[in-house]
Write a structure and sequence with these properties.
Elements: E1 2-3, H1 8-21, E2 29-30, H2 49-54, H3 58-74, E3 79-80, H4 105-121, E4 125-131, E5 146-147, H5 152-169, E6 173-176, E7 179-180, H6 182-188, H7 204-214, E8 220-223, H8 229-232, H9 237-247, H10 258-270, H11 276-281
Parallel strand pairs: 1-2, 2-3, 3-4, 4-6, 5-7, 6-8
Helix pairs in contact: 3-4, 4-5, 9-10
């Protein structure tokens, strides 16, 4: 379940009822980016992520994570869809802007680590996002696939360094965006034709080869919202649903129709798109 900001009492009642009746303990997520106000209307708003970055004080990023974690946990949240560790290279980008720690990769790395530390000390799992990195392009992945056009070497020195540092800090989950990284897709699979390069949420090269094998991430990988056009443009939904798991994602975020998407996933298993080994791993 993903919570949008609601009165704290309503969240508590909802989450407690669900957890009492769930056969498997539920993951309760929220966009805890600016403070506890990301889940509870009464929660503290520390400020936009860029305001925190403007202090250039790593401790403020730690305190942001701490407040997000403590206040989220107080109403039953155990998963923060944060921190955003995108790098705001393009001021026209409609996703990143004030939601990021800015355009300096070193500051994004330092503050991303501190947020992860603060939120996870509070018993709430961090989700570093949006892999392989938004902020280069000016397109909105809600509406179309976006592109991280950096070379492999430039990506390694910027986004790659930020992700590696947060992974080494112990970030428990990664959210994968509907973002292409053509340079790495081609390097990791030289046989790919241009029209076969896919956004990360559907890309075996980017999720399994780059994130899991090269960067060594061994936690949970979740797609960004699967209803975004950025994920649906590449192929019919009947193919995209199982392909996301086959690519290496462990969880599929949101559905358009629960019954329909479940049938697509089941058919993907029966057709061998998702192997039994990959299914069990996920």
């Amino acid at each position: 379940l993903m919570c949008r900001p609601m009165p704290a009492r309503d969240i508590l009642n909802t989450v407690q009822t669900l957890q009492r009746n769930a056969k498997i303990p539920m993951l309760i997520a929220a966009n805890l980016e600016k403070g506890g106000s990301g889940i509870a209307e009464e929660g503290t708003t520390i400020g936009s992520v860029m305001q925190v970055a403007a202090t250039d004080d790593d401790e403020m990023a730690y305190k942001l994570g701490l407040v997000c974690g403590r206040e989220g946990a107080a109403v039953g949240c155990n998963w923060a869809f944060a921190p955003i560790i995108d790098i705001d290279y393009n001021f026209r980008n409609p996703i990143t802007n004030t939601r990021t720690f800015g355009s300096d990769p070193d500051r994004v790395r330092r503050m991303g680590i501190q947020y992860v530390k603060g939120v996870q000390q509070s018993g709430v799992a961090a989700s570093i996002k949006h892999f392989p990195g938004d902020g280069v392009d000016e397109r909105d992945q809600h509406l179309v696939e976006s592109v991280n056009s950096l070379s492999c070497e430039d990506w390694d020195a910027t986004y790659g360094a930020v992700y590696k540092a947060c992974i080494e800090e112990g970030a428990m989950t990664v959210m994968v965006g509907h973002i292409l990284q053509p340079a790495y897709s081609r390097r990791l699979n030289p046989a790919l034709k241009d029209e076969e390069i896919l956004p990360a949420s559907l890309s075996y090269e980017l999720v399994t080869k780059l994130l899991k094998e090269q960067l060594g991430f061994n936690g949970l990988v979740v797609t960004d919202a699967s209803t975004m056009a950025g994920m649906m443009i590449s192929m019919p939904r009947s193919q995209a649903v199982p392909r996301a798991i086959a690519a290496g994602c462990d969880m599929f975020l949101f559905c358009r129709s629960l019954e329909e998407d479940f049938s697509y996933m089941k058919q993907g298993i029966e057709d061998g798109i998702i192997t039994e080994e990959r299914l069990n791993e996920a």
